[in-house]
C-alpha cells in the first residue's frame, strides 16, 4: 500500500518535471526560429533555455531510473524521452562548440520538437526490464546510438538550411556560405558513421548475448543496416561529387530519415525479437 | 593482356562500383524484410561482389594506398567479411525439446549447419532435471533455471544450472533455455503383440498455446493417429499476478480414437482395440537453442580493428583537413 503511494507520487513528480521540460523545449524551438528570422547571429537565450529544459528533464529521467531500477529504453515513452534528452544535449554541445553555426538551430530544433510532442502524447507507464536486456552491451549500444543520432541531427539542420537556400532562395546571411556549411555536414556525418558502426557492433554483441545469434536480418537489423549503407554511400559519393553542398544536404536528410524510422518506427511496428520473446 | 587485366581490376575496384554495390546490399536487405530471402544464399551475392570490389580497390586505388588509416580500415573490412563467411560455413544452429527425466537425444535435434560443420551432437549426454521459470505480472517471462545432470566417468552425476544466458557448454556446443517449454504426459503403450514402451508426448508450448494442449499422436507400431488432449482442470496462473511455471495437478489425458473418447487420470489404463495405454503421470519439457561454436571473437576483434582505423581516419580528417581531391578530379589509378 505504502509502496503504491510512493510509486504514484513518484510518477506525479516525474510528470511535473517532464511537463516543465517540454514547455521550455518548445519555447526554445519557437525562439530559435524567431531569432534566426530576425537575422541575429547568436542564440544565447535559446541555448540557455535548452540547458534549463535539459535540467528538468534530467531530474525526471533520474527519478524514473531510481524508481523503476532500469534505464529509459524499454517502451516507446522511455525511448522517446531518452532521445529527446540526448538529442537536445547533443544540439547544445554542437552549437556551443561551433558558435557561428548557431542560426542553424532554427532548422535543428523543429525536428526535435516533433519528437518532444510525440513523447508528450505517449502515455508514461511503469515498465519492467526484460530479461534479454540484462547485458552490458545494451547500454553501450544505446549510448553509441545516441552519439550517432546526436551528430546526424545538427548535420540535418545544416542540410535543411543548404536546401532551403537553394530551393527557396532564403539567404540567411548570418550563417556561413553553403560550401562552408557542407564541410561541417561532412565532418558531422563522418564522425556519426564511426559511432553508427560501433553501435551496430555493440548491437550484434547484445544479440549474440540475448538470442545467441549476432545478426539475423530481423526488420530492425535490416533497417539499421540500410541506414548504415546510407552513410557509406555518402562517404563514397562525396569525394567525386561536383555539387557537394546539395549532395551532403540531401544525404543528411536521407540518413536522418532512415535513422528516425529505424529508431522510432520499426521497433513499434514489427514484432521483431528486439522486443524480447515472452 | 596485363594492361587489360589492370583496366578491369581498376573498373572493378572503382568507387562507382562500390556505390552501386552498396545500393544493391541495401535493396537486398530491404527486400529481405518482405520476402523470405534473408536466410537464403541471395544474401551472399552482394557481399561477395563487395568483397571483390574491396580487394580490387585495395590493389588499385591511389587514395586508399596513400592514406594508411583508410587502407587499414578497408583491409579490416575484408577480414570481417572473410571471417563472417567462414563463420557461416562452420556455424550450427539447432532446436531440441527434452522432457524432464529424459536423456538428451541427438536424433531429435532440428539443426541447420554450414557446409564445413562437423556435426558431433551424438557425443552430448545429459539428463534433463526439473526447471523453474518466474513470471512477472502481465505474463512477462523472467529468469529460467533448468537443472541438468551430466553423467561422470565414475558413474556419478554432475549437476549444472543453465538458463537463457547461462548455457550448458559441451565442447563446441552451447545449449540455451528458451521461451519454448511445456508439458509432457508420460504414457506406457502395450501393443497388440505385447511390446511395452514408455515415452513422453510433448504437448504444444505452454503458456503460449494455453488453449491448444492437444495433438495428433501415432502410437508406436500403429497406423492411424489418435488425438491426445491434456485437460488441465485448474488454471496454472493468473495473468495479472506473478507466478511460477509449475506442473498442474489432477490433469487428465483425453484420447479420441475415431468416435471413441476416453479420459484418463494418472495411473488409469485404457484399451485401444487389442492394445493398451496407461497414463503414468505428467512431466514438463524444455526447449533449447543449440549454437555451434562460432568465430564471433575473431569477428569482434576484426570489427574493432576496423573501427579503430576508421577513427584514425576521422582524426586525420579533422586535424589535417579532408584532403579530398578537388571535386570532379581524376583519382583511383
Ligand atoms: C562496406 C563498408 C565500407 C565502409 C564503412 C567504408 C568507409 C569509407 C570511408 C569512411 C571512407 C573515407 C571517406 C572520406 O573520408 O570522405 C572511404 C573511402 C574509400 N572507400 Fe570505403 N568503405 C566501405 C567499403 C568500401 C568498398 C567495398 C570499397 C571498394 C572499392 C571502398 C573503397 C573506398 C575508396 C576507394 C575510398 C577512397 C575514396 C576516394 O578517394 O574517392 N570502400 N570508405
List keywords for this structure.
heterodimer; A: 278 residues; mainly alpha; 8 helices; 76% helix; flat; B: 333 residues; alpha+beta; 2 domains; four-stranded antiparallel β-sheet; 15 strands; disordered C terminus; binds protoporphyrin IX containing FE
**In angstroms, what is the radius of gyration of chain B?**
29 Å
Oligomer: heterodimer
**β-sheet strand percentage of chain A:** under 5%
Most strands sheet of chain A: none
SS elements, strand count of chain A: 0
Give the proportion of residues in helices of chain B: 25-40%
**What is the count of DSSP helices of chain B, taking H or I runs of 4+ residues?**
6
Number of domains of chain B: 2
H/E element sequence of chain B: HHHHHEEEEEEEEEEEEEEEH
The radius of gyration of chain A is 19 Å
Which regions of chain A contain 5 or more consecutive residues with pLDDT less than 50?
Answer: 270-278
> How much β-strand is present in the residues of chain B?
25-35%
Bound molecules: protoporphyrin IX containing FE
Q: Roughly how much helix do the residues of chain A carry, as a percent range?
A: over 70%
Order of helices and strands of chain A: HHHHHHHH
Shape of chain A: flat
Reported for the largest beta sheet of chain B, the result is: 7 strands, antiparallel
Please state the average pLDDT score of chain B.
88
Q: What is shown here, in short?
A:
Chain A has eight helices and no strands. Helices cover 76% and strands 0% of the residues of chain A. With 278 residues, chain A is mainly α.
Amino acid at each position: 500500500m505504502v509502496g503504491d503511494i510512493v510509486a504514484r507520487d513518484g510518477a506525479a513528480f516525474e510528470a511535473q518535471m517532464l511537463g516543465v521540460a517540454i514547455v521550455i523545449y518548445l519555447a526554445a524551438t519557437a525562439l530559435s526560429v524567431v531569432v534566426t528570422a530576425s537575422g541575429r547571429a547568436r542564440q544565447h537565450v535559446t541555448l540557455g533555455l535548452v540547458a534549463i529544459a535539459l535540467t528538468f528533464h534530467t531530474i525526471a529521467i533520474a527519478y524514473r531510473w531510481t524508481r523503476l531500477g532500469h534505464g529509459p529504453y524499454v517502451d516507446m515513452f522511455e525511448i522517446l524521452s531518452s532521445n529527446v534528452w540526448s538529442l537536445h544535449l547533443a544540439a547544445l554541445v554542437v552549437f556551443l562548440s561551433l558558435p557561428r553555426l548557431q542560426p542553424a538551430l532554427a532548422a535543428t530544433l523543429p525536428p526535435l520538437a516533433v519528437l518532444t510532442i510525440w513523447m508528450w502524447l505517449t502515455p508514461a507507464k511503469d515498465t519492467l526490464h526484460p530479461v534479454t536486456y540484462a547485458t552490458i552491451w545494451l547500454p553501450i549500444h544505446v549510448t553509441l546510438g545516441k552519439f550517432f543520432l546526436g551528430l546526424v541531427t545538427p548535420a540535418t539542420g545544416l542540410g535543411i538550411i543548404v536546401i532551403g537556400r537553394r530551393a527557396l532562395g532564403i539567404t540567411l546571411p548570418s550563417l556561413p556560405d553553403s560550401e562552408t556549411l557542407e564541410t561541417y555536414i561532412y565532418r558531422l556525418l563522418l564522425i556519426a558513421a564511426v559511432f553508427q558502426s560501433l553501435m551496430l557492433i555493440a548491437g550484434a554483441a547484445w544479440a549474440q548475448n540475448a538470442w545467441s545469434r549476432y545478426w539475423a536480418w530481423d526488420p530492425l537489423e535490416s533497417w539499421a543496416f540500410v541506414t548504415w549503407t546510407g552513410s557509406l554511400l555518402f562517404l563514397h559519393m562525396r569525394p567525386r561529387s561536383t555539387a557537394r553542398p546539395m549532395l551532403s544536404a540531401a544525404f543528411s536528410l536521407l540518413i536522418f530519415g532512415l535513422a528516425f524510422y529505424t529508431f522510432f518506427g520499426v521497433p513499434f511496428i514489427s514484432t521483431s525479437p528486439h522486443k524480447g520473446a515472452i | 593482356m596485363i594492361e587489360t587485366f589492370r583496366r578491369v581490376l581498376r573498373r572493378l575496384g572503382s568507387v562507382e562500383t562500390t556505390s552501386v554495390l552498396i545500393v544493391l546490399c541495401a535493396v537486398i536487405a530491404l527486400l529481405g524484410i518482405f520476402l523470405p530471402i534473408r536466410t537464403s544464399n541471395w544474401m551472399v551475392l552482394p557481399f561477395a561482389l563487395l568483397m571483390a570490389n574491396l580487394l580490387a580497390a585495395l590493389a588499385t586505388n591511389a587514395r586508399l594506398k596513400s592514406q594508411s588509416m583508410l587502407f587499414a580500415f578497408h583491409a579490416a573490412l575484408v577480414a570481417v567479411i572473410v571471417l563472417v563467411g567462414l563463420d557461416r560455413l562452420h556455424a550450427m544452429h539447432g532446436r531440441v525439446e527434452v522432457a524432464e527425466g529424459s536423456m538428451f537425444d541427438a536424433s531429435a535435434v532440428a539443426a541447420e549447419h554450414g557446409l564445413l560443420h562437423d556435426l558431433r551432437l551424438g557425443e552430448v549426454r545429459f539428463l534433463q532435471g526439473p526447471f523453474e521459470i518466474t513470471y512477472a505480472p502481465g505474463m512477462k517471462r523472467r529468469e529460467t533455471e533448468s537443472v541438468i545432470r551430466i553423467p561422470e566417468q565414475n558413474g556419478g552425476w554432475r549437476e549444472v544450472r543453465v538458463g537463457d544466458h547461462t548455457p550448458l557448454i559441451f565442447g563446441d556446443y552451447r545449449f540455451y533455455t528458451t521461451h519454448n517449454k511445456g508439458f509432457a504426459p508420460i504414457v506406457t503403450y502395450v501393443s497388440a503383440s505385447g511390446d511395452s514402451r514408455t515415452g513422453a508426448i510433448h504437448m504444444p508450448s505452454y503458456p503460449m498455446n494455453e488453449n491448444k494442449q492437444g495433438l495428433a499422436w501415432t502410437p508406436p507400431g500403429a497406423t492411424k493417429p489418435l488425438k491426445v488432449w491434456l485437460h488441465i482442470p485448474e488454471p496454472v496462473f493468473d495473468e495479472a499476478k506473478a507466478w511460477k511455471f509449475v506442473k498442474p495437478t489432477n490433469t487428465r489425458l483425453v484420447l479420441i480414437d475415431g468416435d471413441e473418447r476416453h479420459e484418463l487420470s494418472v495411473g488409469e489404463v485404457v484399451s485401444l482395440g487389442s492394445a493398451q495405454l496407461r497414463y503414468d503421470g505428467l512431466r514438463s519439457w524444455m526447449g533449447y537453442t543449440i549454437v555451434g561454436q562460432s568465430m564471433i571473437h575473431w569477428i569482434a576483434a576484426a570489427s574493432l580493428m576496423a573501427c579503430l582505423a576508421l577513427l584514425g581516419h576521422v582524426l586525420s580528417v579533422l586535424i589535417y583537413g579532408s584532403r579530398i581531391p578537388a571535386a570532379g578530379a581524376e583519382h583511383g589509378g
